[in-house]
Specification:
Elements lengths: L5 H16 L5 H16 L4 H38 L4 H4 L1 H49 L17 H16 L9 H9 L12 H9 L6 H34 L7 H31 L17 H7 L2 H16 L2 H14 L1 H4 L1 H19 L3 H19 L1 H11 L5 H18 L1 H5 L2 H13 L18 H20 L5 H8 L2 H18 L17
Length: 541
């Protein structure tokens, strides 16, 4: 059931209507039922995967929480025994209580480890088995062996990376005592499987989303209006811009031998626009649907293409994924025993200046390797992730040089230099995304190189751009749509665009604007003959 299908739109309308007419106790069960109906239409067999991850992490968190409660009660009992003088010191003394507390914490850590390992193994099996087999076969071939391992027929369940990470973070947060385990299995199943975020996130935390999911929200016309506005804006970005420019991008990357030089630059810029409109459009639809139900969700983007460097870009792009990797991979690795020992050794033998960087860079390397392979089970995504790591590390190392440059030429803070920084970030990120486009590491480097060796820039003016599957009207629509995206982003720099509209534009005026935008989607949306009503790009992850 595509987000862009009539079936999905009808499904959402029916769900929202039922949500507000059903009694309070039936609201969250309706969301659970609706979420599993949505997932059923993605493939009924995939229900076993999401149900399996849900059961495993639910049981693990429940066992952790119960152990913690029993341990706390026993600890208090031992302390009371010591205070009353009725218990032996070796049983209830301070040292005995400390040993008991540590033993129970280790038990909870083991439960957590088993739970998240099984959940991640399910993800690894369905997503990385054939990638592993492919690399083993490559090694066998390299060593002259004719033996090959057969590939498995495993379909990748929709959104498995998103709901697995969400479930894993829940177990870890219960272990960290950020919240109690949810005792109602079906409420927890709703948190894991809430349908709008299954396709491409955001990756929600239990503490942020659960309360709102289970609270019966009364009808609120203003909330419904704001959610609908967000949904319409998302469909505009997806159907009018992303799916239209997709035709040209696919034409160029499907036959790379015919589209070198300037066309690679076009792929860079067109794909950057396509990905942004596709992903942010999908997130707008997701957050808008949840908002129509009275459920606020975390923002996932903050005008990333206004970033002045790649580190800032990743604080603004796919925010919930970035914070997930920071909280559950980078920080735990950074403060782990082996990493602390490495830091101490490196500072002693390599000096303070170099030594203190090694643990940070190693943890960052692991995070970016994981980020790459999370995006896809292929080397192009791994190289893409490590490319981000290299650029960020180089930028950090050159920071003292930047400061001297700014001091010498008084450039820091100037509008011209900020514009240069933004343009540089757009070009760097777009160049790195070529690994996503061509899906082949050697080919990507080769095509990138042709931008500097194949001088066919005259293609901009000789009509060959009309051979990419788009006509002149398509380019006009894309140009106007892109300008609108930029204008809205500029307005949003100083606060919510919708809040500003509510303050300055009356209700009738706002509805007129979104009525016109809806007509634009209907009239100029890229669907029908020659176009592909495509699934969202991040659905593959």
């Amino acid at each position: 059931m595509l987000f862009t299908s009539y079936q999905f739109i009808g499904f959402v309308i029916l769900l929202v209507a039922l949500y507000y007419v059903l009694p309070k106790k039936a609201k969250w069960p309706l969301l659970l039922l609706g979420s599993y109906v949505f997932y059923f239409f993605a493939g009924w067999k995939f229900l076993f995967y999401i149900a399996g991850v849900t059961v495993i992490t639910y049981v693990a968190a429940l066992l952790i929480s119960r152990n913690k409660n029993r341990a706390d009660a026993r600890f208090a009992e031992l302390k009371a025994l010591e205070k009353s003088g009725e218990g032996a010191p070796e049983e209830c003394g301070k040292e005995a209580r400390k040993r008991y507390k540590e033993s129970q914490k280790k038990k909870r850590r083991r439960i957590m480890g088993v739970g998240i390992t099984i959940a991640l193994l399910i993800l690894a099996v369905v997503k990385y088995t054939n990638f592993t087999i492919h690399n083993i076969n490559g090694l066998l071939s390299a060593f002259g062996s004719s033996q090959r391992i057969g590939f498995l027929t495993i379909a990748l369940p929709m959104g498995i990376s998103f709901y697995t990470f969400q479930a894993v973070s829940y177990v870890i947060d219960v272990y960290r005592e950020r919240h109690e385990a949810q005792k109602n299995f079906f409420k927890y199943a709703l948190f894991v499987g809430f349908f709008p975020q299954l396709v491409q996130g955001p990756i929600s935390r239990y503490g942020d989303l659960a309360k709102e999911l289970f609270t019966p929200h009364p009808f609120n016309g203003r909330v419904l209006e704001r959610g609908l506005e967000r949904v319409i804006w998302g469909y505009f970005k997806k159907v009018v811009i992303a799916d239209r420019i997709l035709t040209a991008v696919n034409t160029m990357i499907d036959t790379p031998e015919n589209y070198k030089g300037v066309y690679v630059f076009l792929v860079m810029m067109f794909y950057a626009l396509e990905l942004y409109a596709d992903f942010t459009g999908g997130i707008d639809i997701t957050i808008g649907i949840a908002e129509m139900l009275g459920i606020p969700m975390k923002e996932n983007f903050e005008r990333p293409f206004f970033s002045k460097n790649i580190a800032e870009y990743w604080r603004r792009w796919h925010i919930t994924m970035g914070t997930w990797f920071t909280d559950y991979i980078f920080y735990p690795i950074s403060v782990s025993g082996p990493m602390l020992k490495l830091g101490k050794w490196s500072r002693k033998h390599l000096g303070e200046k170099v030594g203190k960087r090694i643990p940070v860079y190693l943890a960052s390397f692991i995070v970016w390797f994981t980020t790459g392979i999370w995006h896809g089970a292929s080397w192009n995504f791994i190289v893409w992730g490590l490319g981000n790591f290299v650029v960020i590390m180089i930028s950090q190392e050159l920071e003292p040089l930047y400061r001297r440059f700014h001091k010498r030429f008084h450039t820091d803070g100037s509008t011209t230099y900020k514009t240069f920084q933004v343009g540089r970030t757009v070009l760097l990120m777009s160049a790195l995304r070529l690994f996503d486009c061509y899906r082949d590491v050697p080919l990507t480097f080769k095509m990138f190189g042709t931008m500097f060796t194949t001088w066919n820039w005259k293609s901009f003016g000789n009509g060959t751009l009309l051979e990419l599957g788009l006509v002149r009207s398509d380019y006009v629509i894309l140009g106007l749509g892109t300008i609108l995206l930029i204008v809205v982003s500029m307005i949003g720099r100083s606060g919510s665009v919708r809040d500003k509209m509510e303050k300055k534009i009356p209700f009738a005026g706002r509805w007129a604007i979104f009525y016109v935008l809806t007509l634009v989607i209907i009239v100029f949306g890229a669907y029908g003959l020659g176009y592909d009503a495509a699934q969202f790009i991040y659905n593959q992850f």
